[in-house]
Every structure is written in C-alpha cells, then in structure tokens.
C-alpha cells in the first residue's frame, strides 16, 4: 500500500502574508485561494494550506523542506536579502550560521506566524556523518 502526504493546514495570523512569505523564500507559487485556505504546493505535490486563525490560537510548528544545492543557494540569498535572521539550529542559539549536517547544508528561520521553518540539502536519514555547524 502506498501512502503519501497530500496536504497540511498551517495556521497563520494572516494567511496571505504567510503563504507569500514562504513561497517567496522557496521560489514557489502561491495558489488560488479556496475557501479559508491559500495553498502553496511543493514540487512533490504536497499542498501547504495556510489558514488564518486568531494569533492567540497559533501553536508553533516546525516545517522542514528538502531542497537542492541550487535551491538552498537561492533561498539563502532571498533570506539574507530580506534581512531575515537565520540560525544553524532549531533552538535559535546560533544566529547567522548554517549547519552542515550529514554532509549537506541547512538553516532555520521563523515565518510571520512564528512557525519554525528549515531548509536542508540532505535528509536527516543520511546519518552516516556527524552534524556540524559553521
């Protein structure tokens, strides 16, 4: 039996702002609004449906995106150009650094709703190498 993630709902204070923010960083398109949702589709077909809810109801979530080396370079350039603080670690203790976990590169940043976003060039299943930061 094949199982694939089709979509997930991401809570936001402003669904358009959050959808456009992530789409811009990742070089993706914002889809057509459908009811309370504004979708951003990933290249593997998973839709991230941004839904506006009251700010006090938002619970921080973590979303990690596997990107190519070229995709990382492009996203990293957009992050720096926008002046977004980025970190090598999910606890936000290493600002201005990227990591080199499992022989790749990765970084963490926050979206407008306070969710932790991560871009990585190697999946965490690549446990052959010890994580490092720079």
Automatic annotation (TrEMBL):
<dbReference type="InterPro" id="IPR004360">
    <property type="entry name" value="Glyas_Fos-R_dOase_dom"/>
</dbReference>
<dbReference type="InterPro" id="IPR037523">
    <property type="entry name" value="VOC_core"/>
</dbReference>
<dbReference type="Pfam" id="PF00903">
    <property type="entry name" value="Glyoxalase"/>
</dbReference>
<feature type="domain" description="VOC">
    <location>
        <begin position="4"/>
        <end position="122"/>
    </location>
</feature>
<dbReference type="InterPro" id="IPR029068">
    <property type="entry name" value="Glyas_Bleomycin-R_OHBP_Dase"/>
</dbReference>
<protein>
    <submittedName>
        <fullName>Glyoxalase</fullName>
    </submittedName>
</protein>
